[in-house]
């Protein structure tokens, strides 16, 4: 066997090459290239693992295989033309990104959003959060070797997609929000179906608990695996279910309230353990909380406009200024930093994606774990690669 | 015709019949597995080729046969091509001593059980060759896992089998079955429940089925030892896996579930029915359980199954000496 074909395949100058060379000299460990084509990196993440037997000595995530220049594209598009990009940054939680972008524009231009639009945003945003968590749930259990739960999860996700399709026109990469409201109004049928879905999903969650959460093999694979301390979360800027799984109730919906989230009665699930199981429990509890929010919002949605009268047109020029707006996405804090010089094109846009910070934990976290645990940890971080590369 | 010639002809017929049985069973089992998977996952499973998709496996087999077998550049040609053959060839032999009916035995020898246990060890060698010969790190990891797993789980399996043979006093499978009666309370799993449990767990592990499918764990090792195999190279491994399933379930049926014994129906059908119940349980495992971690897998074996099997064996010996 050749010692390290990975080195030959590396692009000169790419990240990780130096590490690989240093390792190859050592000789007692094996360098394993996990990805960019690997079933459990879910996309094109590449992790260079240095293994001693099956124990990980060093893990280096290599990103950039799905870099699509979303930030640079913002500089050659008008603010409204940039909307479809937001649906494609994170294909599982596009409405979170929609919301961060329109929120930044509204904050910059001082646009007041009609109340009905805010309710529609909350309902669709939380539906999207549930659908994102359902994909994560199925894929995570699939990483651990159980094939069936993903089919059940997709059955439920399908219902959400069917709800969002008629109002947004798409099933995966929504660009449904607009500065000053949402693209289309929802009808009574949508609200009725949403309530029916809430009831349906409330019956499904206990079933997931019985089938998966209480399974002894599953628990053994998650408990005490990849324990993240709160200190590590702070150091790497981890947000979302990752920090909440480590015992800190950091949720933008509560800590920096935006939209109308302060009007609903819900709490932020927290787990003290900080292991993969803690993150699992937080996400499962979040689905139940999102159902609560949706139910309240559907019951209290007022009549009115779904978008402001003079909504920005495609060639609209935002005022000069600099603004930062953050929302709570399915994976954590989604931030948009927008600098405008008064032209119709933004001067500079910086996207803060939660997956990038959460992935950066991985190198430190995987050290000393088994290869199988690395798969479990990667899954529990809930990574979406296009969001990390942007 | 002399006695030897008759024996020879009988042997040839037995081998051909066994090969046919394996071919038909595997084709049916793959179809069954996919249907079971489908229904566990609330979807219909294969449905397009033939009525209810019954020709799906044949179409798959044709596809596998017609695909170009590829060999990676750095692979060792001899080991690489030898491995699938080594995996599949002994499995035919394993089915010969199994009593499918009162007289329906390919090779009725006194040490039939020993023959099966000895030749089932060949499977590890095949996986090891495949892993090492492929020049692929995932395959090497899969092979290393399979060796540690198969060697470990063979011991409690042997001890469980030994406990049964202790109480029956024979290694001849036909006699073992004959000593049990037609009804469930005559069967060995009543007197040896612990041995039955240990045997079945180890059998699942020996055939590399979920939750013990670590050598080919696709979400970790892409495909483990058969990562680099395509076409019929992969097909032979696949065939060997299903044949091994049939073997371990047949042996389990003969040892613990009274083999061909049963009321009303002829023996052969009882044997098949019991075997398929066990096969269905294995499929049920596969589509519902997550995979164990490797250290947990070995802990389960060395810290639980092995001591339990030893205790069971000692208990059996003690009990037999006493009465």
* Helix/strand structural class of chain B: mainly alpha
The geometry of chain B reads as globular
> Approximately how much helix is present in the residues of chain B?
55-70%
- The strand count of chain B comes to 0
Question: How far is the N terminus from the C terminus of chain A?
Answer: 37 Å
Rg value of chain B: 20 Å
What's the rounded overall pLDDT mean of chain A? 86
Which residues of chain B form runs of ≥5 with pLDDT under 50? none
Flag low-confidence runs of chain A.
1-15
Main interface by residue count = A-B, 30 and 30 residues
Describe the protein's architecture and organization.
- The complex is a heterodimer of chains A (390) and B (323).
- Helix content of chain A is 49%, strand content 12%.
- Chain A is mostly helical and 390 residues long.
- In chain A, the strands form three sheets. Chain A has a three-stranded antiparallel β-sheet. In chain A, strands 6-7-8 form a three-stranded antiparallel β-sheet, with helices on one face.
- In chain A, helix 5 (94-109) packs antiparallel against helix 6 (115-143).
- Residues 1-15 of chain A have low confidence and may be disordered.
- By secondary structure, chain B is mostly helical.
- Helices cover 70% and strands 0% of the residues of chain B.
- In chain B, helix 1 packs across helix 2 (56-66) and helix 6 runs antiparallel to helix 9.
- The radius of gyration of chain B is 20 Å and the shape is globular.
- The termini of chain B are far apart.
- The A-B interface holds A 1-2, 5, 30, 32, 38-40, 54, 141-148, 151-152, 155, 215, 217-218, 220-221, 370-373, 375 and B 37, 40-43, 74, 135, 137-138, 140-141, 210-211, 213, 217-220, 222, 286-296.
């Amino acid at each position: 066997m050749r010692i390290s074909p990975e080195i030959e395949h590396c692009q000169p100058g790419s990240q990780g090459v130096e590490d690989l060379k240093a390792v190859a000299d050592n000789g007692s460990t094996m360098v394993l290239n996990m990805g960019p084509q690997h079933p459990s990196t879910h996309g094109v993440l590449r992790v260079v693992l240095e293994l001693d037997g099956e124990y990980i000595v060093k893990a280096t995530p290599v990103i950039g295989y799905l870099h699509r220049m979303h930030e640079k594209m913002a500089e050659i598009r008008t603010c409204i033309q940039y909307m479809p990009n937001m649906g494609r940054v994170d294909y599982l939680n596009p409405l979170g990104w929609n919301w961060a972008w329109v929120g930044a524009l509204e904050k910059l231009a001082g646009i007041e959003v009609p109340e009905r639009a805010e309710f529609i945003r909350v309902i669709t945003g939380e539906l999207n959060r549930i659908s994102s968590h359902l994909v994560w749930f199925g894929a995570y259990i699939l990483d651990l070797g159980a094939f069936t739960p993903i089919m059940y999860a997709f059955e439920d996700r399908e219902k959400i997609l069917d709800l969002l399709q008629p109002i947004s026109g798409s099933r995966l990469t929504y660009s449904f929000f607009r500065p000053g409201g949402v693209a289309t109004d929802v009808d009574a049928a949508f609200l009725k179906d949403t309530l029916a879905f809430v009831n349906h999903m409330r019956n499904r969650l206990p079933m997931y608990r019985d089938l998966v959460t209480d399974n002894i093999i599953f628990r053994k694979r998650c408990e005490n695996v990849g324990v993240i301390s709160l200190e590590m979360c702070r150091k790497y800027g981890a947000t979302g279910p990752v920090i909440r799984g480590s015992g800190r109730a950091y949720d933008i919906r509560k800590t920096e309230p935006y939209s109308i989230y302060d009007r609903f009665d819900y709490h932020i699930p927290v787990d003290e353990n900080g292991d993969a199981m803690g993150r699992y429990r937080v996400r499962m509890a979040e689905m139940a909380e999102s159902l609560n929010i949706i139910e309240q919002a559907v019951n209290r949605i007022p009549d009115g406009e779904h978008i402001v009268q003079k909504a920005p047109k495609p060639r609209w020029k935002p005022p000069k200024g600099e603004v930062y707006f953050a929302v709570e996405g399915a994976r954590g804090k989604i931030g948009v930093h927008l600098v405008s010089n008064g032209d119709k094109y933004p001067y500079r846009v910086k996207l803060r994606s939660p997956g990038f910070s959460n992935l950066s934990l991985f190198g430190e976290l995987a050290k000393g774990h088994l290869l199988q645990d690395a798969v479990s940890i990667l899954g529990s971080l809930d990574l979406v690669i296009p969001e990390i590369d942007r | 015709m002399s006695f030897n010639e008759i024996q020879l002809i009988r042997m040839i017929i037995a081998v051909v019949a066994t090969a046919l049985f394996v071919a038909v069973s595997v084709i049916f089992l793959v179809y069954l597995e996919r249907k079971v998977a489908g229904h566990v996952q609330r979807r219909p499973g294969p449905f397009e080729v033939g009525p209810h998709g019954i020709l799906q496996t044949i179409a798959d087999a044709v596809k596998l046969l017609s695909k170009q077998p590829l060999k990676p550049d750095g692979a060792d040609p001899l080991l690489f091509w030898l491995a699938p053959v080594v995996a599949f060839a002994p499995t035919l032999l394993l089915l010969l001593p199994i009593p499918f009916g009162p007289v329906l035995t390919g090779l009725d020898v006194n040490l039939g059980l020993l023959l099966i246990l000895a030749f089932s060890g060949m499977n590890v060698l095949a996986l090891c060759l495949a892993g090492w010969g492929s020049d692929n790190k995932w395959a090497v990891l899969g092979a290393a896992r399979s060796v540690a797993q198969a060697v470990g789980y063979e011991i409690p399996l042997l001890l469980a089998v030994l406990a049964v043979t202790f109480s029956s006093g024979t290694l001849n499978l036909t006699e073992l079955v004959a000593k049990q009666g037609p009804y469930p309370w005559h069967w060995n799993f009543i007197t040896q429940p612990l041995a039955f449990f240990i045997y079945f767990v180890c059998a699942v592990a020996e055939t590399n089925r979920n939750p013990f499918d670590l050598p080919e764990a696709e979400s970790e090792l892409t495909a483990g030892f058969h990562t680099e195999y395509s076409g019929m190279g992969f097909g032979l491994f696949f065939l060997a896996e299903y044949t091994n399933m049939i073997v371990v379930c047949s042996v389990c049926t003969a040892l613990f579930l009274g083999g061909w014994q049963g009321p009303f129906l002829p023996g052969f059908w009882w044997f098949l029915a019991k075997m398929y119940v066990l096969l269905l349980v294995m499929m049920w495992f596969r589509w519902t359980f997550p995979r164990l971690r490797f250290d947990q897998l070995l802990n389960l074996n060395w810290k639980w199954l092995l001591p339990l099997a030893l205790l069971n064996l000692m208990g059996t010996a003690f009990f037999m000496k006493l009465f």
